[in-house]
Automatic annotation (TrEMBL):
Superkingdom of origin: Bacteria
Name of the protein in its database record: Pyridoxamine 5'-phosphate oxidase family protein
Listed InterPro entries: Pyridox_Oxase-rel, Split_barrel_FMN-bd
Organism encoding this protein: Nocardioides agri
Signal sequence interval, chain numbering: none
Amino acid sequence: MDQLRRLADQGVTDRAALDALLDSQWVGVLSCVVEGAPLAVPMLYARDGDRLLLHGSTGAGALRRVAAGAPAVLTVVALDALVVAPTTFESSVNYRSATVRGPLLALPDDERTAALDLFSEVLLPGRTSEVRPATPKELAATLALALPIRPDGWLMKVADGWPATPAESGAADDVWSGLVPVRSTLGDPVPAPWAVDLPVPPSVRRLTAGDA
């Protein structure tokens, strides 16, 4: 649980590299065991220093269970390139992946509003100043959780190499091989039908312009 068993040479212990991966993604998979059965739920998350913030409905059974102290792990993956080798057996992908494990802490009422605002600001900086605050009813229906990033509570792997050579693959020299980079980009904002005549807010303009 606390060390890599396979391809350990791809392990990364640099905390800055972990933070860079976590900050580059929006979605992770939260896994835990509920009543003896495995449960995995894709969730938005946001890093706040040495902790990860998650949130969901108070009616979500999985979140209530992990908030009660059940061990959990959040997995985050970034796909960077398709590795095209001289054979399909040697072909693979370049990626960065991390798991952060530990108990999730339910945030008390006096911390929930600030945590949810910070969550929104991480995903879309500046948006909280453009919309109304959350209502007491909305806050009461939302569970906010924090997963501490402990020094011994995370593992990270990075695969970033070239494909195997023809000699290593037992393939002919005239078979093309290389990398196909994978890129994620934000497109132009598309207004909702009821907002077509409204200007795009600064928060969205900055995000799509790459300035956020």
